[in-house]
Amino acid sequence: MTGPNAQAPPSRYRIAVDIGGTFTDAVLRRGDGFVRSDKRLTTHGDLLEGFFAAVDGVLAKAGIAPAEVDDTIVHATTVVTNAVVTRSGPSTALLVTEGFRDVLHIRDEHRYDMFDPQIEYAAPLVPRERTFGVNERIFADGNVYKAVEAAEVDTLAGKLRDANVESVAVCLLNAYVNGENERRVRGLLAERLPEMHVSLSSEVAPQIREYPRAATTVLNAYTQPIVAPYLRRLSEALEERGFSTAPLIMMSNGGVLGAGTAGRFPVRMVESGPAAGALAASHLAERVALDRLLSFDMGGTTAKACLIEERRPTVTGQFEVDRVYRFKAGSGFPILIPAIDMIEIGAGGGSIAAVDGLGLLKVGPDSAGSEPGPACYGRGGAAPTVTDADLVLGLLDADRFLGGDLPLDLGAAERALQGLAGQLGVSRIDAARGVFGVVGESMAAAARAHATDRGLDYRGLPVLAFGGAGPVHACFVAELLDGDTVIYPPLASVLSAFGALITPLRYDLARGTAGPVDWDRAGTAMAEMEEEARAAMTAAGCPPRGMRFSHGADMRYVGQQNEVTVAFDGNPVASRDEAALREAFETAYETAYGLRLSDLAIEAVAWRVSGHGPDVAGDTEPMTAAAPGRAKGKRPVHVRAEDEAVPVYDRAALSAGQELAGPAIIEERETTIFVMAGWHAEVRDDGCIVARRDG
Amino acid sequence: MDGIALEILWSNLIGAVSEQARALQRIAFSPVVREAGDLACALLDREGRMIAQAVTGTPGHINTLAAAGAHFVETFPPDGLAEGDVLVTNDPWLSAGHFFDITVLTPVFRKGRVIGFFGSTIHHTDIGGYGVGAGARDVHEEGLWIPRAKLYEAGEPNALLHDIIRHNVRTPDEVMGDLAAQVSSGRVGAERLKVLCDRHGLDDIDELADEIISRSERAARASIRGLEGGTYRGESRFDIPGGAEIVLKCALTVDAEAGDILVDFAGSSEASPHGVNVVLNYTHAYSAFAIRSTLDPELPNNHGSLKPIRVTAPEGSIVNAKYPSPVAARHVVGMYVPMPILKALHAVTPDRVVAEGAGAVWTMQIQGRDERGEPFTSAMFNYSGGMGARRAKPGLGATCYPTGVAAVPVEVLEAAMPIEFTRKELLDGSGGAGRAPGGDGQAIGFRMRTRDPWFLNAVPSRLSAPAEGLEGGGAGRPGRFLVNGEPSARANKMTMAAGDEVLLETPGGGGFGAAE
Q1: Phi, psi at residue A60, to the nearest 5°?
Q2: Which of A356, A430, A514 has the CB atom closest to B415's CB atom?
Q3: Does domain A89-220 bear CATH number 3.40.50?
C-alpha cells in the first residue's frame, strides 16, 4: 500500500466513491488528468452493491482492471447518518457518573421554540433503561476524587449482557479534563466482555459540557457496530476483487483517514459527502485563482453552502443531526466533532411556496421531496414548488429535464402557481417571480448571517454553483451578495465524489483543559495528540516525510462562557511563549468580535492538534468541444418583467474560450445554468464556466 | 406593498435583529445570557413600536422590551438624539420588572434622522443590593436603580454613569463587559439596517413598519375572531418561598367582533412583603405570551400582534405592584401568570392549551470563598420542573413553559466555582397521570467544596400547591427543597455550613385527560 502523493506519476489511478441518499457516484482520475465518472442508484439493502456497480462502471469506461488502480480508493458514505435517522443501530448502552442517568433526556432543558408549545425532540439513541450509573468522580481540576471499582463493573457487565448490549458509550463527568476513570471502565469491561464495542467520551469528544459530549459519544457507540464491519467488508471486498490498495474514508472535517481510525470514530463520518463537496470547492477556488468563495449546492429539499476562505473551507466544532420537528434547530442532537462548517437552508427545488398568516409569500421549509415531488413531476403533487416556478418562468425545459428521462408537466406547474397567485392577488408570472426572488433572498440571508457570525465579510463573494437547482439560482444569489462572479464547475453532478478524490489526509484532535495555562500539561497533551495523529496517518499509508502538524486552542477571556477556536502560526505551547499565545487569541477574537479586552486574563479550554498529509493533485483534462457551439434554439424567459427570448446552449457543445452574453441558458443533463441579463459567461480550458457581471 | 416585496424586506429585518442577538450572545460574559439564552433583542421603529424580535430569549424580556420603547421615546424624542447616543435603563416599572435586567437602546440614523432603534435586554450577573432572591424589604434594598439615561452621548461614554455602575455592582468586569456587548451588538444591528436601506433604496422604514405592524395586528385579530365571544375564567394557586400561597384569578373576555382580548386579574392576591412582586409591564408580557403562543405561535411577535391584547390588574395586587414593593424575584410569580389564562382559554380552544406545569424555573445563586479563601459570587443558574401535558402529547420533562431558558451545564458550573453536583435526574412519576401525562420534575443535589460558611439565594416555588391537570388529568407532584434532608425553603438568603447538602426536587406538570 502506498500513500497519496502530489507528485504522482501520470499513469497512477485513483478512484473515489460517494454514496448519497439517492445516488452512488464514482470518479476515476489518472495522474495526467484523465477523468471518468459513473452514477448509479444507491442500493440501500447493501450499500456495497451500488459501490461496486459504480466502480465497475468507471473501470470499464477507463478500460482498466482493478489491479491497475495503484493509488488509492477514497470512500464517502451516508451510512452513519442513515443509521441514526432510521434508528437501525444495535442495542446500545450509556454509562454515566452515578446520579446523572438522564443526561440525554433532560438535554439542556431548553425549549428551542419559545412560542410553540407543541414542539418535540429526537428520541435519544439510548433509552433510560439502558443508561447505568457508575460510582466514581473526577472534579473540574482533573483530580480523581473517587476511582472506579472492579466489583461495580462486574455487576454492570452482567446488566449489559442481560440487555444484549452490543456497544457501550461511557461519558463520565469532567472526563474532558481527565479520562482516567473512563479508561479504567473500558479496561475492566474488556476483561469481562471482550466482544463489546466501547466508546469513551474522553476520546470521542473530550470537551466541556456533559450533554453534547454524551450525545456525541452515544452516536459513536450506536453506529460503530454497523460501520466497523461495513468498512471491514469493504476492505475485504476490494482485496477479493483484485484491488491492491486499502480504502481511505472521507471524514466530516474535510480530510481522509484509514478505515481503522474511521471505524473507531464513525461519528466523524457524519455528513462527509457534503464535506467532500466543500473540498472540491476549495480545489476549484485554487484553479480559478480565487482566495475565497461561497460554495452553493442546491438540491431537492435543502441547499448547502460553505464559505471557502484562503482556499480552505471553514471548519466548526459542533453541529446538529436528526432535526425531527419541522427541520428546526434544537430538535435534533448536538454533535461535537470537527466538521466543515455548512449552512443548511431548508429551501431546494422541492420546497413548497405558501402564503402565511400575514399575507407574505414564504418558501419552505416544507418540501414536496421527490415523492410526490413538485406539481410538474406529475406524481400527484399539487403544491407549488421552486421547481414549478422555475418551469413557469421558462428556466427549465419540460422535455429535457434529466436529459428527458423525467418529462415535466407545465400545465400542472401553472395550475399550482395560479392558486398561489390568487392568494397574493398578483399574476401567475409575478407569483413565480416572487418564488424565485424569495428563495434567492433566503439563501443570501443565510449566507450573510453565517458569514457575519464568523466575522467574515460576505460582500462580493464569488459563488460556486452546483446541485440540481444551484446553477439556476446562483446568478441572482450572487447579485444579492454584491458579488460579480459565478463559477459552474465541470463534473458538477459528481462533485462530492470528485472532492473525495482530491481530499488529503487530515486528522483533528482536541483535548479539554481548565484553569490557568499549565505549560507542562499542555505540552504533554499536544505531544500525545501529535503521536495519535502520526499513528493514524501512518496507518493510512502516509510516509513520515509527507506529514505536517498544526496547532491551536479553544480560548476565551476568563469569565466568558464561549470560546474562540484559535489556529496558531507556530506552536506557542512548545516555546512556552505567553505573549505569542495571547496575541494569537486576541487576533482571532478581534476578527470574530471586533474588539480586544487587553486588561482581562485569558484561558484555554481545549488544545488542538491537526495532522495533515500531502496535497493531492486534481487538475483534469479539458472537457470542452473542439469548435464553438451555436445556440440550439431560443425560449421565452420571464424572470424580468419583460418576456425575453433567451438563447439555449448545450454545455457539451461549448468550446474553450467561448463567450456568451446573458441572458443565456446552458443545459446539461442534471442541471440548467441561467446566466442573467447583465452577465456574460466564458468557458475555460478545463471546462469551468465562469460568469461575470458586466461593467 | 405586495406580499412578495414585503416578505423580502421583512426577512431582511429579521436577519438584522438575529445578527444583533447572535453578536450579543457570543460576546456576553453572563452565563445566563450565553448558556441559557436569557436575552431579548428587537428592532423598534422611530416611535418606539417593536417591529421585529430575534428568535431567542424569554417572553418576559421580549414583550417588556416592546413596552420600554415607548417609555424611552417619551423621555428622549428621536429628533433630540445625536448620532452615537445610546440609551439605558433598568427601571422595573418601565422595562423588565427588576434591576438585574438592563435595557439598552441604540438609535439608527439615516440622513441625520432617527429611523429606528435596536434594543436589547439582558439579565446581568449582579446589580448590587440584596442579590438574586426575594429577601429585600423594598425595591431600594435590591440594588442600583438606573433611570432612563444616556449611556453614550454622541459616541462618548457617559463617564459618571459608567463609574456609578462599576462601583455599585459586585462583579464590575462582567457587568461592564456585558453592557459593552449590548452597545456593540446594537451597532451590528444598525449597520445591517443601513445596508438594507441602501440595497432597497429606502430613506426610512416608516412605511415598512406600518405595513408589518398593521398586517400583524389584522392577523392577530382574525385569530381572536375565530373564538367564541364571552368571558372565561381561570384560577391558579401556587406557593412561593416562605410558604405563602398565591392565587391568580383572571377573567378573560373575548370580543369576537373587535377581535381583541381583555385579561382582568381582579381577585388575585395582594402584593407580597417579599421580592416576588410583578409590575404590570411584566404581567402583560406573560399574559400576551400565553395567548399568542396558544392562538397563533407562527405569527411574528411585535407591536401589531400584541396590540389586541389588553391586561388590567388591581393596583397594589401581586401582578400590578407599586413602588416601593420589592421585585427582584418577580419571575417566580410572573411565570405563573399564563396558568390561569390557559385554563380560561381551555373553554374556547381546548386542543391548543397546555395544562398547568411546574411554573417558574428555580433560580440559584451562591456566594462564598473557594478553597484558597478567595471570595466568589456565582452567576444565577436555574432548573426547570415538568411542563404541563398538551392535549395530544405528554408534557416535556425538566423543561419550562412559559419560559424556555436552558440550564447551565453541570460541568460549566463545576469549572466556575467550587461546587460539586451529586445528582441531576428525572423524578419518575412526578408528572401528573393522564391520557397525556404531565412532564416529570427532576432532582438536583449539590454541596460546596469549601471550608467556610456560604450563602445560598434559592428561589423554589410550588412546594405545596401542585400543578393541576385538565379534563380529568392528574396533578403533578409538588416540589421539595431540602437541606441535609430537611425541608427548608425560606424567602431570605440562607447562611449555609461548609458541609451542607442541598437537594432540589422540582415539581411535575399536570396531566391532560383521565388516565386509561
Answers
A1: -65, -45
A2: A514
A3: yes
Q: Which of A108, A442, A592 sits opposite B409 (nearest CB)?
A: A108
- State how far Cα A482 lies from the chain centre: 26
**Residue A16 half-sphere exposure toward CB, CA atoms < 13 A:** 30
Tell me which residue of B269, B270, B282, B272 sits closest to B236, measured CA to CA. Answer: B269
The answer to whether the CB atoms of A118 and B390 lie below 8 A apart is: yes
Count of all residues that appear for chain A in the document: 695
Q: Which of A98, A104, A115, A427 best tests the B interface by mutation, with the highest count of B CBs <10 A?
A: A115
Q: Which tens digits make up the pLDDT trace of A353-391?
A: 999 888 899 998 888 877 788 999 998 899 999 999 999
Check CB contact of B421 with chain A, cutoff 8 Å. yes
Contacts of A429 in chain B (CB under 8 A): none
Residue A642 has pLDDT above 90, yes or no: no
**Mean pLDDT across the stretch A47-55?**
95
Contact map slice: B 350-369 vs A, CB within 8 A: 352, 354
Angstrom distance (rounded) from CA B253 to CA A629: 73
Domain boundaries, chain A: 13-84+228-266, 89-220, 271-503, 506-612, 633-693
Domains A13-84+228-266 and A271-503 share a fold: yes
| Sign of the CA dihedral with B283 first, then B287, B288, and B289 last | positive
Q: Tell me if A106 and B397 make a contact (CB, 8 A cut-off).
A: yes
- Please tell us whether the domain made up of A271-503 is placed in CATH 3.40.50.620: no
The answer to whether the Cβ–Cβ distance between A114 and B215 falls below 8 Å is no
Chain B stretch 376-395, residues whose beta carbon is closer than 8 A to a beta carbon of chain A: 383-384, 390, 393
Question: What's the pTM?
Answer: 0.90
DSSP alpha helices (H): ranges in B123-258?
159-167, 172-200, 206-225
The answer to whether residue B322 scores a pLDDT higher than 70 is yes
Torsion over CA of A46, A50, A53 and A58, rounded to 10 degrees? -140
Are the Cβ atoms of A592 and B26 closer than 8 angstroms?
yes
Cβ separation A449–B15 shorter than 8 A? yes
| Structure confidence by residue, pLDDT tens digits, B378-420 | 878 899 999 999 999 999 999 999 988 889 899 989 988 999 9
Q: Can you give the pLDDT at residue A6?
A: 45
Q: How many cross-chain Cβ pairs, A to B, lie less than 8 Å apart?
A: 210
In chain B, what residues touch A562 (CB-CB under 8 Å)?
A: 25-28, 34
Residue among A434, A442, A561 whose CB faces B11 most closely: A442
Tell me the per-residue pLDDT of B90-105, one tens digit each, with 9 for 90 and over.
999 999 999 999 999 9
Q: Which pLDDT band holds residue A2 (cuts at 50, 70, 90)? A: very low
Please tell me the CATH code under which domain A13-84+228-266 is placed: 3.30.420.40
- For A41, phi and psi rounded to 5 degrees? -70, 140
Could you tell me the residue ranges of all domains in chain B? 3-216, 354-516
CA angle (A445 as vertex; A439, A450 as ends), nearest 5: 130
Count each helix (H run) and each strand (E run) in chain A, helices first. Answer: 16, 35
Cβ within 8 Å, pair B424-A102: yes
Q: What is the average per-residue pLDDT within A592-605?
A: 79
- Indicate the SS3 state at residue A258: strand
The pLDDT value given to residue A563: 81
CA distances from B375 to A88, A578, A677, B372, B412 (A): 52, 27, 68, 9, 19
- Contact by Cβ (8 Å): A389, A410: no
Residue in B4, B22, B425 nearest the CB of A453: B22
The pLDDT confidence band at residue B31, using thresholds 50, 70 and 90, is low
Chain B residues with CB-CB distance to A357 below 8 A: 219, 222-223, 296, 298-299
C-alpha cell at A339: 466538521
Q: Which residue has the cell 454545455?
A: A651
Look at A99 and B297 and tell me if their CB atoms are within 8 Å: no
